[in-house]
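Lecture 7 notes: from sequence to structure.
We start with the chain below.
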Amino acid sequence: MKNIIFFIVMSVIGLSCNSGKKISVSSSENRFYHIIPKPVSIIDLKGYFEVNKFTNFAYKEENTEVATFMELLNTKFSFPLKGIIVKESPEENAINFAIDSTINKEEGYILEVTNSFINIRAKTYSGIFYGVQTLMQILEFDTRDNKIPALIITDFPRFKYRGLHLDVCRHFFPPEFVKKYIDLMSRYKFNRFHWHLTEDQGWRIEIKKYPKLTEIGAYRDSTMIGRYSDVPRRFDKTRYGGYYTQEEIKDIVRYAAKKHITIVPEIEMPGHSRAALAAYPELACTEGPFSVMPIWGVSEDIYCPTEKTFKFLEDVLSEVMELFPGEYIHIGGDEAPKARWKESKYCQELIKKEGLKDEHELQSYFIRRIEKFVNSKGKKIIGWDEILEGGLAPNATVMSWRGEKGGIEAAKQHHEVVMTPGNYCYFDHYQSLDKDEPLAIGGYTPLEEVYSYNPVPKELTKEEAKYIIGAQGNMWTEYIPTPELVEYMVYPRAIALSEVVWTPQKLRNYKDFLKRLIPHIEELKKEGVNVANHLGDISAKFENTGDGVKMTLWNSMPGSIIYYTLDGKIPDNTFPVYSEPGIIRKSVKIKAVTYYKGKQAGPVFSREIKMHKAAGKFMKLINEPSPKYNKGGANALINGIMGSDVRYADDQWLGFNGKDFEGIIDLGAKMHINRIKMRFFNNKGAWIYPPGEIEIYASDDGYSFTIAGALIIKSKNTSKVMSVPVRLLKNTNARFLKIKVKNHGIIEEGAQGAGHPAWLFVDEIIVE
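Predicted structure tokens for the same chain:
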């Protein structure tokens, strides 16, 4: 009866169950495994398989694939196992590798551990490789004294495209590190390495027909220091660069193939091409000269769609396609400013000649020509979602980065899509709100947010959802100059993404994932990977209750304890334990810290609450902020907590793009008010401007308001956070306060962001 149940289980999950020998599932044990990504099915069996000096690797024919499997697994044993060729499988007292054509999932595998043998079966060697990776994790985390727990794992990926990206243009990384990056990817069953090789800031791939691309384009004379938004900007005035020779690339491609990873090279066009134009200025619409950009951001100078340009790109792509055997060539297509095309007589004549509507359709014409050439060589193009603009090339795959909208549109047009939206998949964002985090480009994408992602949007039908072929994590390196920092930013967030793209959605659980993750972090650190560990970081939620602020603290580390104080003292494990939310009704200085196994396991959390007449009360916004900058909601503006003076992406700042601020505070009862202080973020380099005017209105009933105070702001204050007091009329007594704050409006010519609406960032509204 038990074996019948086993057959049914195997059939339901869609893989063959013909192992050649009967396996009993009776008297199974309940065990916890630390496997990431989580397999589709694990059935525990009674007992274990013990590896001894007579244990062998067994296979029907010797080849390089089997040699790789043996090499990997032997790193987990204190004595090396030898390989033997057998006629039948599975062999007793052996780790067996077997190709099984009855398994119907291309990358699926079945791993059977019994008291007598271990058997890894798959339809392809890729499947066996993934089974080996799973077995290696069991050997590392769930095996004691060479005794491997008996089990049956049936597993296959949710998506066929499971990618990680690395930008080597803003900062260059040596071949040895690229291989290490690939090693880590393979451990967690990623199968696509997106290698971003050309940019405005550097060309990183040798093209033999065009030697100036690396002689000139691979090096810049200087590199920006600090943030793009800093005013004034600073530069190090040091020559910087590097590139990969074709021999180095061939070696890396072979190395990746051994790890069952296909490399997707990216050659940017028509934009992000300044390094190429520095080498060959005749490819631009203007005369130049051009230099490799020392600053981050986007150049206005892009390829001109001349026959000379297309010949150049076809020559480049021909050499690229010879180096990379995978099906995809990534052609970028993102952030291509059209100013040069609008000014170009040639481009305007080409638009008329080809019957195009505008410059966006000219970009589509550009991409379609490139796609036709790439397709003629038996390859496919993939591009960022801007390639949708002006009409999508017939066979293109879309990589959706500006949210999910582009991916949804492409899937509805029956084009394959790789989802990589910034708020879930950009690992150059901050992963912690700790003030000591290394400089990042911005944004806040913690581990939990990555793990929560479902790449299939709800807007798609079941049929349309089939065009979502996977997801990818992106590592842009403007602010990431070293390999160690790349590792810190990518891991463990990439581990979370590995489960997103492999494990069925219904089997994913964040708490379960964290429990499995902890030993992985410890092991990676032992191996010299600079993995970030923010599991002990304390998060907090502050909710207004009408008569105070409800504080909730938590972290992501199972089995840990939080100790806290309210008087500003730094706690240790002798202080009170935080156990449940509490209401704060007076000014406090909160300090909290995580302990795990008796040791501090994270930075000290600090938050000060300064109570005032509106703190803990309720507020309604009339104009809604941008969803991207609305983490704390309206009541974050009156909870007594001041937002960070370093980052405007925390949960206390609300951002309004081109909109005025308007909201109503309910004080709960009529009271006397002298003045209101408002806090605004001020960073013109990031398009964030102080307001032009503030108006305060008072009311007893919340419907009829009268003016109570106003202020026109003319200050040239350059501090990042401006505190602006507005004194109210004498004898102002009210229950409700309406506050209007005028946005700066359109940014003036000559300033960063000229012509775009300014951002207005509002923080605590202090009522005195």
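Points to note: Residues 385 and 400 are 5 Å apart (CA to CA). The first strand starts at residue 41 and ends at 50.
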